[in-house]
Fold this protein.
Amino acid sequence: MAWFVVLVITIAFACEYMDSALGMGYGTTLTPVLILLGFEPAEIVPAILVSEFITGLTSAGFHVAFKNIKLRSTSSQVVVARVIPALARGGDLPRAEMQGQVRSLKRFFHEMTLDTKIVMILSLLGVLGAVLAALISTVHAASRLARFIIKLYIGLMVLSMGIIILVFRNRKFAFSFKKITLVGALAGFNKAISGGGYGPITVSGQIMSGVDGRKAVASTSVSESLACLAGVITYITMNLYLHQDLGNFSIAPSLIIGSVLSAPIAAFTTKKMDPGKFKSCIGIATMLLGAFSLIRTVHGLTW
């Protein structure tokens, strides 16, 4: 059924275009559509994790190419080529030389771009959340009431973030690493308890922490990709341990093709969009995703 494969690729393309351009919406919109097409959650979850990892890296590459984000530090090539290999030898180095290499490594972290530091914080907390989410989904099935409460909480939070961004869209927020860490912790927590809610919270939270909208979207693409990689590894490991199989990745190729094709177009859209309008678009998208999540949660309760 070639037409069905093309349909899945097209849907993935559309969902990833929105996700890569605005930093949110891929899993939230794609999952219910795939369920309507007849796929089971056991097929959808691993496929989305794999496709988000690959397309997240692809999207991040184009965001860097279009200068939506700057990840390299001035001393990165020196550290990769000389310092890290030297530290790996450890005990073979004289004490004075070892201390010099450590100082070089500290200088490397100090000279990192702000974008790189934000990505590191969000990635670390996102990875922790993704690992916990994969463990919870393969080991423990929450009660129907608990799932409803969790989804209701995520929907309300995302909706609220969208409304706040729209209300304060003309306000300049002061940047703070404490705010970024709080945003990353909250997004990681949401990922752990529900498997979702990462993108909308990370993007909107960064904007409310004083990060430019374009950079917030690009940072989310990188950090969420790494979080999905951790989720995939944990998912496969737990399935091998509990069920002696890798899991069902049958629709992953179609999702990857559609998603990867959208990455350059989405990154270019992010670059060209007016900053003021871009913030409004993110606010509207966040609010709509929150409302969509709430409607889907309440509708699911009625069945």
Q: What stands out?
A: Residues 2-72+113-301 form one domain. The CA atoms of residues 151 and 297 lie 6 Å apart.
